[in-house]
Each structure stands twice: as C-alpha cells, then as structure tokens.
C-alpha cells in the first residue's frame, strides 16, 4: 500500500506516521510528501527520511483545479493508493476528490463536529470546554467534515494551560493517526482479497 502525506507546516504527524512505517506498525510505504508551503519543516523531515517531496506554491497556478491536476499526475506516477492529510491547511477540491474518492483522510485536533477550521485547540480552550480530543475522518468537500473514522476524547484538567493541552492533543494524534491508518489498510487489504475471491468464484 502506497501513501502520500500532505502537510503545510511542522509535519509532526507526518513524522509519527513515518516512524510507525519504519517500525512496522503501519504496513505501507510513504511514497510522497505533498507540501503547499515550500520551506515548511515537514519538507526537511521528508528529506532526512529519504521520502520524495512534491512542493508547490498555489499562487503560481491559475487556481485549485490547475495545481490539483498536477498533484494527481504526481500521485498517479507514484501509484499512490491513499492520501493522508496531516496539517494540510487547504480545502480539497473536486479534482482530487474525484481521483481519490473515499481514499482521502484527515486528522483534526478537536472532537468534530465541534471546532472545525483553523486553531481548533485555541477555539476549544477559549470556549472553556472540559472535554476535547482528536478526530480522524474521511474527506469530502467541506471544511473538516466527512464520515468520522476514529475519535479519542481528552479531558481538560483544571491545571492545564493552552500549551499543556496542545501537548496532550499532539501525543494522542501521534498515536491515533498511525493506528487508524493501519486499520484502514487492513480493511482495504481484506476487502481487496475478498473481491479477488469473488472474482475467482465467478470465473471458476
Ligand atoms: C495537527 O494538530 C492537525 O490535527 C491539524 O494541524 C496540525 C498539524 O501539525 N490539522 C487541522 O487543523 C486540520 N483542520 P503537524 O504539522 O505538526 O502534523
């Protein structure tokens, strides 16, 4: 199974998935990092890991359709099966959604549907919630919408600061995303072999 990870920033989730791949906890290959912020720290991580990077500046294209067409070409060249959004701070457009229907996943640092969009941890902190968490979902055309695949709740303690809450959320993200990706891979692999068996039965 070949993965492409999309990131715009620090890439700590990308690193956690890459570590899980190296340790055999995720049975896949990260064949490409796609980055819409040339120079982002995620790129440095990819280079250190020997993972190819496709980096682009959106404003150099006529629009989303144009840069997503180029992304799809790169993904197809690398024979990517699944797209993993890891802090890719951009809405996915119809070009990518059609090419990778039900094969694009995202992580978000809140219990969706609460606090979608940017700075979800800050939004939750400002709202004074006592419980927040992490969500992994299938991507559709909305902002942090789409069917939920896994969630983990985190209690906000009286002693917490925004910084300590952020650390607690990141620790959960770095465990939950690799674990969920491995579950998705196992599901796809078993569905694939089931389809093959059905095909075998129908031609026998
Ligand atoms: C992560 O907390 C991720 O959940 C969030 O961006 C951060 C990226 O961190 N994504 C969103 O807010 C998506 N709406 P990272 O670059 O260190 O992985």
UniProtKB/TrEMBL annotation:
Pathway field: Purine metabolism; IMP biosynthesis via de novo pathway; N(2)-formyl-N(1)-(5-phospho-D-ribosyl)glycinamide from N(1)-(5-phospho-D-ribosyl)glycinamide (10-formyl THF route): step 1/1
Binding sites annotated in the UniProt record for N(1)-(5-phospho-beta-D-ribosyl)glycinamide: 11-13
A GO CC term attached to the entry: cytosol
Alphabetical list of SUPFAM superfamilies matching this protein: Formyltransferase
One Gene Ontology term of the molecular function aspect: phosphoribosylglycinamide formyltransferase activity
Keyword field: Purine biosynthesis, Transferase
Cited NCBIfam families: PurN
Protein name (record): Phosphoribosylglycinamide formyltransferase
